[in-house]
Amino acid sequence: MLTRREALIGAAWAAAAAAAIPATPVMAEVKADVGALPRQKVSLVAPPFVHDHEQVATGGPKIVEFTMKIEEKPVVIDDEGTALRGMTFNGSIPGPMMVVHEGDYLELTLVNPETNEMPHNIDFHAATGALGGGALTHINPGEQVTLRFKATRSGTFVYHCAPEGMIPWHVVSGMSGTVMVLPRGGLKNDKGEPVRYDRIYYVGENEFYIPRDEAGNFKTYESLGESYDDTLAVMRGLVPTHVVFNGKVGALTGENAMKAKVGETVLIVHSQANRDTRPHLIGGHGDYVWEEGKFANPPAKDLETWFVRGGSAAAALYTFLQPGVYAYVNHNLIEAAELGATAHFTVEGEWNDDLMTQVDAPRPIATN
Amino acid sequence: MKPTTTKLAGVALVALAIPTALIGLSQGMQLPADPRVRMAETVRIEPGSFTHMQPGEFLQDSRPAAAPRVPVRIRRPLEIMKYQVRLDDYARCVAAGACKPADAREAGEVPVTGVSYRDALAYAKWYSEATGEDWRLPTDEEWAFAAGSRFRGDIEPLEVDTANPARGWLSSYRREVDLARKPDPQPKPAGSFGVNEKGVADLAGNIWEWTSSCYMRVTLGPDGKAIESAIENCGVRVVQGFHRTYMSNFIRDGKSGGCAVGLPPDNLGFRLVRDNSLGMRMARWFRGGWIAS
C-alpha cells in the first residue's frame, strides 16, 4: 500500500519528467554568459517591508541570490482566532518581495523541508518559459531546487505556487508574493523625469475560503490533506470568507500600521495573485500609478482608486501632504469593512489649512 | 391573558405596600411572577456623588475639546444586576416570542452577545412583565457610578492642537495602540472578570454594555463647562465597557458598527437596573389599581 507521501512524490516525479525534456537545452545555453557576473546575496524580510535595495542601479547586471523556505503551518487570519491551514513562502503571507534591476538575473533556491506534507514549486510572472519556472522547480518534502531567470522586463510581477492539479488551492492558502524589477535608471514619471521614493511598502492582498460547520462556525483541520475537500467546495462558490492584507484581518493596523511623514514619498506595491481588487487611500491619491505594474509604460496620474487585475501587482507613488490616520482599503467597502481588507497609515507632520479646513464646526442648523 | 395580568397587579400592589422590604431583598431571593424566569442577582449601591466625564463629543471654539468632568449625584439607591444578562435568560425571552434570537457565539451560562439596543429594550420590557417589576437599561451615569474604578470613559486624544487636528487623531490612535488590548471575542462564564469594589461583576471585560443615554454633540462656552448648544441623537446610544463608545441602536456586532479607525467592542451585551423611583412606583400603583378594579 502506498503512503500518502509516496503517492504525492509519484505525482511530482511524473510532472518533473514531462518538463525536463524541453528545459535542458535552454539551461545549457545560458550558463556560458552568466558565469562571470558578480553575485549578490540578499536576505529577505517579511512584508509589508522590503529588503534594502538601490533604486538606480550602480554597475552592470549581476546575479541576485535569494533563498526561500516553504512553511506549511496553521495561520490565524482574524481576531476570532480562525485558523487557515496555511502554505507559505518563507513563513509569511504574502511571501517576501524580491527586488532586482532589469537585466539582472534572479537566482532563487527554494527549500521544501521534510516536515511539510505537500510538493511545491514557483511560477514567476516576471520570468520567461517553463510555466514561469514552475516546470523546473517541483520539489517534494525533503528537497530543494535552484532556478535562475533573467529579469528582461521591468515592473512588479506576482509569483505563486503552481503544482499540477491543485494550483488555486496553494495560491489561496497563502502561496504568492511579488518580484519588483526596477529599470536600471530607476522609476520615471509620465514626462520621463526620475522619481524616487523615501519608503516602500508591499501590501499583499489575499482572499481565503474557510469552510464552516453546521452551526456556521469556521472549521479547523488537523492537516492540509484533511482540509482539502471542504476548502475546494467553498472555493468553487467564489465567495471568500476573508479578504485581507498581509495575511490577517488587521495585520497592518494599530501597532503595525504603516508609517510616513508629511513630505515623504511612498511607493505602495499591491498584489493580488488570484482575484481583482481596487486599492484606495482614503484622503489621499496615487500621484503616479503603474496600474498594471509595468514600468516601461508611463504611469497614470492623480488616481483616486486603481485597479489590480487578479494575478498582477500594481505600484502607486504618493507624496503625503497632510498628517493624520489614513485608511488604505480595497474599495469594495464590504470587503474592506466586513471581510478585512483595511490597512492604516499614520502620518506625522504639519496640517495644511489651505488644502483643507473646517470652516464651521458642527452646530445646530441656523434658523432665521 | 386575564389571570397573568391579575398576578402582575398583585405583585405590584405588594411592592407598593412594602417598598423598603422589596428593596432589601436584593440577592435573588425573591420569587418571580413567572416561574420560568430566573431572578437576576442584583447589587444595591447606596446613593453617592462622583466626578463624571460627560459622554458625547465636545467642541469649543469650533475645535474638539476634552469632555467636561462634572460632579454627579446619584440620589436614590441603585439596584443593578450583578452580572450581565445571560444567554439562557435571554433565550427565555426569545421562547416567549418577545425577543429576537441573538447573534450569539456560545450557549449556556455566558452573557448574551450579539444584541442591539433595540434587543436590550425588548428584553427589559419582557423581563419587567415576567417579574412584575420595572427593569430598564442603566443611564451612562448610573453605569459609571456602578463601575467605579472600572470606568475608563472615552479614549481621548492626549494632544489637542488647534492648528493641527491630525495631532488629536494620531494621539488617540497611539493611545489605543498603547493600551495593547488584544481582541477577546469568546464570551466567558459569568464572573470570569471578577467583581469591582462595589460588588458588581464583569465590568469592562469582553462585553460592552448598552446604556439608555443618547449620543450628544455639545458646543461648550469659553469656560469649557457651560453648554452653548447641544444636539442629541438618540439613534446612537452610549455603550460602556473597557472604554466608552457610541453605537447605532440597531447594531449587534460592534466590529461592524464601529469606525474605520478605532478600538471596536469585542461583543455587545447588557445588564439592567431595577427602577424603584417614585414615579415608577406611582405608575405601578395606578396600573395595578386600574387593573384590580
UniProtKB/TrEMBL annotation, chain A:
<dbReference type="Pfam" id="PF07732">
    <property type="entry name" value="Cu-oxidase_3"/>
</dbReference>
<keyword id="KW-0677">Repeat</keyword>
<feature type="signal peptide">
    <location>
        <begin position="1"/>
        <end position="28"/>
    </location>
</feature>
<dbReference type="InterPro" id="IPR011707">
    <property type="entry name" value="Cu-oxidase-like_N"/>
</dbReference>
<feature type="domain" description="Plastocyanin-like">
    <location>
        <begin position="201"/>
        <end position="351"/>
    </location>
</feature>
<keyword id="KW-0574">Periplasm</keyword>
<feature type="binding site" description="type 1 copper site">
    <location>
        <position position="331"/>
    </location>
    <ligand>
        <name>Cu cation</name>
    </ligand>
</feature>
<keyword id="KW-0274">FAD</keyword>
<dbReference type="InterPro" id="IPR008972">
    <property type="entry name" value="Cupredoxin"/>
</dbReference>
<dbReference type="InterPro" id="IPR001117">
    <property type="entry name" value="Cu-oxidase_2nd"/>
</dbReference>
<dbReference type="GO" id="GO:0019333">
    <property type="term" value="P:denitrification pathway"/>
</dbReference>
<comment type="subunit">
    <text>Homotrimer.</text>
</comment>
<protein>
    <recommendedName>
        <fullName>Copper-containing nitrite reductase</fullName>
        <ecNumber>1.7.2.1</ecNumber>
    </recommendedName>
</protein>
<dbReference type="InterPro" id="IPR001287">
    <property type="entry name" value="NO2-reductase_Cu"/>
</dbReference>
<dbReference type="InterPro" id="IPR006311">
    <property type="entry name" value="TAT_signal"/>
</dbReference>
<dbReference type="GO" id="GO:0042128">
    <property type="term" value="P:nitrate assimilation"/>
</dbReference>
<feature type="binding site" description="type 1 copper site">
    <location>
        <position position="170"/>
    </location>
    <ligand>
        <name>Cu cation</name>
    </ligand>
</feature>
<comment type="pathway">
    <text>Nitrogen metabolism; nitrate reduction (denitrification); dinitrogen from nitrate: step 2/4.</text>
</comment>
<dbReference type="GO" id="GO:0042597">
    <property type="term" value="C:periplasmic space"/>
</dbReference>
<feature type="binding site" description="type 1 copper site">
    <location>
        <position position="120"/>
    </location>
    <ligand>
        <name>Cu cation</name>
    </ligand>
</feature>
<keyword id="KW-0479">Metal-binding</keyword>
<feature type="binding site" description="type 1 copper site">
    <location>
        <position position="161"/>
    </location>
    <ligand>
        <name>Cu cation</name>
    </ligand>
</feature>
From TrEMBL, chain B:
<dbReference type="InterPro" id="IPR016187">
    <property type="entry name" value="CTDL_fold"/>
</dbReference>
<feature type="domain" description="Sulfatase-modifying factor enzyme-like">
    <location>
        <begin position="40"/>
        <end position="274"/>
    </location>
</feature>
<dbReference type="Pfam" id="PF03781">
    <property type="entry name" value="FGE-sulfatase"/>
</dbReference>
<dbReference type="InterPro" id="IPR005532">
    <property type="entry name" value="SUMF_dom"/>
</dbReference>
<dbReference type="InterPro" id="IPR051043">
    <property type="entry name" value="Sulfatase_Mod_Factor_Kinase"/>
</dbReference>
<protein>
    <submittedName>
        <fullName>Formylglycine-generating enzyme family protein</fullName>
    </submittedName>
</protein>
<dbReference type="InterPro" id="IPR042095">
    <property type="entry name" value="SUMF_sf"/>
</dbReference>
<dbReference type="GO" id="GO:0120147">
    <property type="term" value="F:formylglycine-generating oxidase activity"/>
</dbReference>
